[in-house]
Amino acid sequence: MLRLYYDPVSTTSRPVMLLAAEENIALDHVLLDLSAGDHLTPEFAAINPNRFVPVLEHDGFRMSECSAILKYFADLHGSAAYPTELKARASVNQWMDWFLGLFSKDYNYGCVYPRLLPDYRLSEAAEAERRAWHLASAAKRLSILDAQLASGGPFILGPAITLADYLGACFITLGELVEFDLTPWPHVRRWIATMKARPSWDEVHAGFYGWQAALRAQGAIAA
Ligand SMILES: N[C@@H](CCC(=O)N[C@@H](CS)C(=O)NCC(=O)O)C(=O)O
Fold first, then answer.
1. CA angle, 176 then 178 then 180, to 5°
2. 56: part of which helix (H) or strand (E)?
3. Which CATH architecture group holds 2-76?
4. Closest C-alpha among 136, 135, 128, 133 to residue 111
5. Residue 5: helix, strand or coil by DSSP?
């Protein structure tokens, strides 16, 4: 039995939920509401000492880290989204590492989380300086992604969807919570539209878009 501890609004839970939904992977879902502090209990600390979602359990085996969980799911189900040919798989790994190791530092942590989550915020002056720096850096990364998508598509590595698309699209759409403007990157926008047309996108993102609607209603975020 596969059990997923998750929050539907979480950037790192969404790719796992999306892959599972698209590939009909049956999951026992355990919802942790991060905004209510459900992940801060001693019970969850025993499950993941980092106190982060997602966490996967499979027949007594337990693991965290969304990228590793995506790969585990894909291998377990023989998913074409994680090709077995050496170089094709290496390219998927490369782009997943790129999103996690490079892109997310500037975009998720530099541009988005500080605007949404008080724990990630510095003083007002320091925040303005940090945001300007990360915005410039995120723009460079988005141009690299845009060029990659322009060279082939419709997905990051060509005609077939891979784990890199699942991960990357959920990271990029995080920016929708702060009205991040993707106008300068038309190929990224086209790719995101392709990902949003996946059969399970809307269902998986119901909670996420609920949060976005709440932020908009509060006037909490201006572009
Ligand atoms: N490296 C982890 C990061 C997981 C992570 O950042 N999870 C966030 C939600 S997107 C979380 O649980 N945050 C709880 C907190 O910040 O207290 C992964 O890739 O899965």
1. 65
2. strand 55-58
3. 3-Layer(aba) Sandwich (3.40)
4. 135
5. strand
Cα distance between residue 184 and residue 55, in whole Å: 35
Calculate what percentage of the chain has a pLDDT beyond 90.
89
User: What CATH class has 86-218?
Assistant: mainly alpha
Q: How many whole angstroms separate alpha carbon 14 and alpha carbon 197?
A: 15
Q: What is the dihedral of CA 193, 197, 202, 203, to 10 degrees?
A: -150
pLDDT digits 0-9 by tens, 49-76 = 999 999 999 999 999 999 999 999 999 9
Atom of ligand 1 nearest to the CA of 66: 20
pLDDT tens digits, one per residue of 98-143: 999 999 999 999 999 999 988 888 888 888 898 899 999 999 999 9
Residue whose CA lies nearest to ligand 1 atom number 2: 65
Distance 64 CA to ligand 1 centre (A): 10
**Nearest-angstrom CA–CA distance, 145 and 108:** 15
Question: What is the pTM assigned to this prediction?
Answer: 0.96
Distance (angstroms) between ligand 1 centre and the Cα of 136 equals 24
pLDDT value at residue 220: 72
Amino acid at 130: R
Question: Is 53 a pocket residue for ligand 1 (Cβ < 6 Å)?
Answer: yes
Domain boundaries, the chain: 2-76, 86-218
Decide whether any atom of ligand 1 lies within 6 Å of the 39 Cβ: yes
